[in-house]
Amino acid sequence: MSISVLSPTRALGGVSGLLQVASLLGLVLLLFKAAQLYLRRQWLLKALQQFPSPPSHWLYGHMQEFQEETELRPLLKRVEKYPSACARWLWGTKALVLIYDPDYMKVVLGRSVLWVFCCWDTESAFLGPHSDHQDRESQGWKARGRWLETDCQLASIRNGRLLIPWIGNGLLVLEGQTWFQHRRMLTPAFHYDILKPYVGLMADSVRVMLDKWEELVSLDSHLEVLGHVSLMTLETIMKCAFSHQGSIQTDRNIQSYIQAIRDLGNLTFSRIRNAFHQNDFIYRLTPEGRWSHRACQLAHQHTGAGTHPHWVLPGAGIGNRDVRVSDAVIKLRKAHLQKEGELEKVRSKRHLDFLDILLFARMENGSSLSDVDLRAEVDTFMFEGHDTTASGISWILYALASHPEHQQRCREEIQSLLGDGASITWDHLDKMPYTTMCIKEALRLYPPVPVISRDMSKPITFPDGRSLPAGIPFSLSFYGLHHNPKVWPNPEVFDPSRFAPGSDRHSHAFLPFSGGSRNCIGKQFAMNEMKVAVALTLLRFELAPDPSRVPVPIPRVVLKSKNGIHLQLRKLL
Hints:
With about 575 residues, the chain is an alpha+beta fold. The protein has helices spanning about 10-45, 65, 70-80, 100-110, 165, 175-185, 190-195, 200-215, 225-240, 255-270, 280-285, 285-300, 325-340, 345-350, 355-360, 370-400, 405-420, 435-445, 480, 525-540, and strands spanning about 85-90, 95-100, 115-120, 145-150, 155, 220-225, 450-455, 460, 465-470, 475, 540-545, 555, 560, 565-570. A 5-stranded mixed beta sheet has the order 1-2-10-7-5. A 3-stranded antiparallel beta sheet has the order 6-14-11. A hairpin with a 5-residue loop joins β12 and β13. α8 runs antiparallel to α9, α8 (about 200-215) packs parallel to α20 (about 525-540) and α16 runs parallel beside α20.
């Protein structure tokens, strides 16, 4: 009986053969991937040939611009040199078209909806890509009170998936018919009847902030205002959206939420520009990915009643630190609404808030939002409702501080309207025209959201004849648009007369809240809060810039300053 034994030489030969095969397969895959990348780059070069740009590196594109102290300076150079739009290379096989022209904006933002609900009887129920209701017949919308498909081309939110771990799948990142259904359900939450009682709540929060400022400037007249304004707008949104009681501006623990939002904005913005951080699995392994995860957890703990007792709504308990506390807020409110009854009964007892509207809302098929959808909208509204508004108010105060003649004229207008400011109501907000002009001019110079991105699923042609195939992403630079000398003569000059009644401008020349059907649903809420904050601040303080710390604007998810927004405040007698 013989036993066959595999010799070491044959075994080594077998392993060597396997390694050779594996190496060959790896080489083939590498060459295949290299060919894919080469063809992709050639396709992009051909597609973008009508959109010139500064010279770019074949591997890292225009990334050098992102390394400068602020990329806004090279952006403005592009705006002056390249008409309407230009190409921007992120890296070798990743490019986009940067847009800063109102005609181009109108084309892209007008192709943002796939489905339209048409109701002739109720103007407020109509939502669509065109604001002119007289054009309905020409657009082919003949039904009454039904969902209809139009010939609009879908424009999806580029990089929206990167925001989902932070704010969930809410209105900001939803697409198509689901987005439209959510938008229609949420629109009643911003009806003027709902917004009216909020003015008093806004004023209360602003006064708390101004009282703090009085104490601080008695010691030092120099103040960094953005941090304080962020706390104020956060408190306002908690009161208006979730009927929060009391003040959070004096709670030191709340600063951790503000910092988490700041970190998430910076991390998300930097991730978009990093070729190696696009894959979710790889990103989670990086220090930035772990940092982002921790910041998300902290932000979610603060969107309601979980970590700190001061955040608890009446009757709520303190939840587990690892639980998304918006769940506790939703559960508590559902229980209260079941006791209070139907919507009209609730309205007769108290003012409705954002969460009430969400919980009473129904889709076309009669179903309500799921808890997951509710949580996403709560998280979205928490971010959108405080961070962007805080940026806007802070930059407005800086613009007025830098132009004392306009500041004084606003103050005189407000004094004649409000006296000592003991009371400010909804009716006052439309009676401060010059202050409104100054607010809009400041928003032109410092748009709270400096840029948004879109992907087009179908080819697009612009008014000047240039066209692009499907699949080319767009970056809509509102900062570039607002500083475009072909749109706004002397764009760096603060000139409120640009917004005087009867002034003529392109419908898409001024977009601080975006445009088209996907514009900011809370823009009226934000404008009201800005007016209240500016009016009450100017009645209490004289503002001046801090010459030793001039703010340096930097584009993030929200327009920030690299070194904060520092002002000198003098208490008025």
